[in-house]
Amino acid sequence: MADINLKGMGVALITPFNEDESVDYVALAKLVDYQVQNGTDYLVVLGTTAETPTLTEEEKKKIVALIIEKVGGRIPIVLGVGGNCTRAVAEKLRTDDFTGIDAILSVVPYYNKPSQEGIYQHYKAVSAASKLPIILYNVPGRTGVNMTAETTLRIANECANVVAIKEASGNITQMDDIIKNKPARFDVISGDDGITFPLIALGAVGVISVIGNAFPKEFSRMVRLALAGDYTSALTIHHGFTELFELLFVDGNPAGAKCILNSMGFIQNKLRLPLVPTRITTYEKIRNVLISLNIKC
After folding, report:
1. What angle do the packed helices 231-249 and 255-263 form, to 10 degrees?
2. Nearest to 166 by CA among 193, 143, 188
3. What number is the average pLDDT over the span 173-202?
4. Apex CA 107: angle with CA 243 and CA 114, to 5°?
5. How sure is the predictor about 294, in pLDDT bands with cuts at 50, 70 and 90?
6. Which of 50, 125, 203, 279 has a 20 to 30 A CA-CA distance from 249?
7. DSSP-derived pairing of the beta strands 187-190 and 103-107
8. Closest by CA position to 197, among listed 171, 233, 166
9. Mean of pLDDT over the chain
10. Does 62 participate in catalysis according to the annotation?
């Protein structure tokens, strides 16, 4: 199993759509180049931000193949492989071709609301099935259940190929508990752009970012400065984005990110139902912030 460096800024890549809601592969290729050329440390493909539940299996395969080809080995690629049927996730990990993929991001099972023992057993099965390093993904706001620090640490200590967690519980105390007690080989990654700066100060190694879709150069610089201990410079950049952090999610993810990318001329402002674009009022607020940041839109 090859090592993967998860320090810095990963970007949870969006899926651009055409006006007819077909996948805009041309825009996707341009976005990948934009990321690679502007400081993104790794890409996270087919995650929540990609609207993965609304994509067909054929579209998913085509998206992954395009991204692998465009990246060309320049930065690592993390692929989202998760679900609420442990057997199906394990089977996919055993049988799919993961050539060109460097690690797996696997979310806590959603909707079923498993117990902590159920979450542990799920990841134990996922770990046994995967030849690639695994990043846990705790996002109780979406899954309906929080994976506790105790469960995270149990998995981290017992499953050698589980190398990190994307923590999006919003509970700083819980994250700090994991950072304090984790094995040395296990990393904590912020799952929320807005708390990346304080979490790095506590010992996290970076972020899997949504705002990085639009601002890879600026946000990756903030992350690198914070990791280097230059908190004053990092905080200045962090504060420059605080209004956008809120606007990014007020109408849901990835509506905010797509609104920004549309304002910047990268993509059509299209999502697939049940998701819809931001409200006009949010769109105008985002445009005003971009203008105040001297960003062309």
Report:
1. 110
2. 188
3. 98
4. 115
5. confident
6. 203
7. unpaired
8. 233
9. 96
10. no
Structure tokens given for 9: 């800024």
Check if the beta carbon of residue 61 is closer than 8 Å to that of residue 100.
no
pTM: 0.97
Selected catalytic residue, list 166, 182, 258, 270: 166
Domains and CATH numbers, the chain: 8-228 (3.20.20.70)
Closest among 75, 49, 11 to 254, alpha carbons compared: 49
**Do residues 47 and 80 touch, judged by C-beta distance below 8 A?**
yes
Q: Is 137 a catalytic residue?
A: yes
SS3 34: helix
- Of 284, 180, 190, 196, which is closest to residue 242 (Cα–Cα)? 196
Q: How far apart are CA 173 and CA 178, in angstroms?
A: 9
Residues 6+ apart with CB under 8 A from 235: 197
Distance of alpha carbon 197 from alpha carbon 220, whole angstroms: 11
- What tokens does 259 get? 């609104």
Kindly name the residue from 42, 120, 137, 283 that is annotated as catalytic: 137
- Please report the sign of the dihedral spanned by the C-alpha atoms of residue 13, residue 18, residue 22, residue 27: negative
State the Cα angle at 19 between 13 and 23, rounded to 5°. 40
The predicted structure's pLDDT at residue 293? 76
What is the C-alpha to C-alpha distance for residues 79 and 64, in angstroms, rounded to an integer?
8
